[in-house]
Design brief:
The chain has 456 residues and is an alpha/beta fold. The chain contains 15 helices and 16 strands. The strands form five sheets. The protein has a seven-stranded mixed beta sheet with strand order 11-10-9-8-12-13-14.
Length: 456
């Protein structure tokens, strides 16, 4: 045996380059070991198909470096107790607890939120058009005025053409709006249309290199796909049939949503460990059709393959240590623009990035909820309230300080398998009933809510 080792060492001395490579690889792998389950997610890792060295090289390609693992603790004791207020509340950006916004499909609730003095239609005796709400096209041109008033104050059927013109399609659209209790017409987007961004306690450790100044202005569009147009929809409860034409896009967290919930039987998924806004188009993903095994596809192939009714996007955890919030926002915006071009009729749901645990956020300068909250606030400005919506599952997953509940996670980043169902249940409270769905047999009670006057 000793002779064999001597021969081995003699051979290695004759090939110093090989020896150097072996030692370098061993050191590199040793550096990566603390990141397993943290910056190197291993929820779907197969060491035979993808050696740890290859995983590390992929993360470096994504801008995640091995030594980032030493900036955080990844073990959870699982003993944290979350208050009931934290499970059901939303949080302000300063970390203060607020009552969660209750999303209701009832027209009366929406009218109360807007102000009881809101008129059903803003009319003028002199025949001036009131409540014009042009639906913005992709190039920003306004199309159609809804709610033009006649001389006696009665609302005319106008969504780009009047009933006098014989435009039956426009009249049908207006009728659908009037029969949809989740539809709101307003000069400004009502606060209850999108979720509030859930805040979190700031432990003062977040690396300033990954933040943008607090006064940074993000979306200010008045035209185009991210602009408000006067037509808005409230969230309503749905069942799994609503998600039958949905595509859920995301990183390893979304892989868990697919793998550990019944959604895999009824919903389309395109997800991959390490997916980020920076490699969105060049990183192959696992594409799952309902009840089927994964197919390897590019995101372009997924979006070109079929028309989806809804598209949900959950990204951000892999980008926390890359660039500023403004850079993240700009890349996210470009992704949404390309998705809209590929899927012009889909409702798009921006899912707020899931927070991390207190143990991570209070010890790491990268995996910090301060960075998470700022980035969620930035991309939330892209939600226009009529076909792009912001939803924030942190209202049901976080404790009173806005941290991911300790008893829901093992590594501070990913949910335990049994906890993903809470995410699934949350999505079923954030359905959107469009006018087309109302016309096809949706809610028949209630009427269009016009809150223009109340909005000022």
């Amino acid at each position: 045996m000793k002779n064999r080792f001597r021969k081995l060492f003699r051979g290695m001395r004759r090939t110093p380059l090989v020896l150097l490579l072996v030692i370098s690889e061993a050191l590199f792998v040793a550096l990566m070991i603390p990141g397993i389950g943290g910056i190197y997610d291993v929820s779907d890792w197969n060491p035979v198909e993808e050696p740890l060295l290859l995983t590390g090289m992929e993360r470096i390609h994504d801008g995640v470096w091995p030594w980032q693992a030493y900036a955080k603790e990844t073990e959870q004791d699982g003993n944290g107790e979350a208050g009931e207020e934290g499970r059901n509340g939303a949080f302000g950006s300063d970390g203060s607890s607020e009552t969660a916004v209750q999303q209701s499909g009832a027209a009366g609730d929406s009218l109360d939120a807007a102000g009881s003095g809101a008129a059903e239609a803003s009319t003028a005796e002199d025949g001036d058009a009131a409540g014009a709400a042009g639906a913005a096209t992709e190039d920003g041109d306004a199309a159609g005025a809804a709610g033009a008033a006649t001389e006696d104050g009665d609302a005319a059927d106008a969504t780009g053409a009047t009933a006098e013109d014989g435009d039956a399609a426009a009249a049908a659209l207006q009728k659908a709006k009037e029969s949809n209790p989740t539809y709101i017409h307003a000069d400004h987007m009502p606060a209850e249309v999108n979720d509030k961004v859930v805040g979190a306690k700031d432990y003062g450790l977040a690396d300033k290199n990954y933040l943008s100044p607090d006064d940074t202005v993000y979306n200010t569009d008045t035209e185009g796909i991210f602009a408000q147009n006067g037509d808005y929809y409230l969230f309503t409860d749905v069942d799994d049939s609503y998600l039958a034409d949905a595509l859920i896009i995301g990183d390893s967290r979304t892989e868990g949503l697919h793998g550990f919930t019944s959604m895999q039987k009824s919903t389309y998924f395109a997800s991959k460990e390490g997916l980020s806004v920076y490699n969105f188009w060049d990183k192959g993903v696992n594409y799952y059709e309902p009840g089927e095994d994964a197919a390897k596809k590019s995101m372009d192939e997924v979006l070109a393959g079929r028309s989806f009714g809804k598209i949900y996007i959950s990204l951000g955890i892999n980008e926390l240590g890359i660039g500023t919030t403004k850079k993240y926002y700009e890349s996210y915006r470009e992704i949404l623009a390309k998705i809209r071009k590929a899927q012009p009729d889909a409702l798009i749901f921006i899912e707020g990035m899931m927070h991390v645990s207190e143990k991570l956020s209070s010890t790491s300068n990268v995996f910090s909820n301060t960075i998470v909250v700022q980035r969620n606030g930035a991309v939330a400005t892209l939600a226009n309230g009529h076909d792009i919506f912001y939803i924030d599952m942190n209202s049901v997953l976080c404790d009173a300080d806005g941290n991911l509940q300790a008893d829901m996670t093992g590594d501070g980043i990913h949910l335990y398998a049994s906890e993903y169902e809470k995410w699934h249940a949350f999505l079923l409270t954030r359905g959107i009933q469009t006018t087309a769905e109302a016309a096809d047999g949706g809610a028949a009670d209630g009427g269009t809510i016009d809150v223009s006057a109340a909005q000022g």
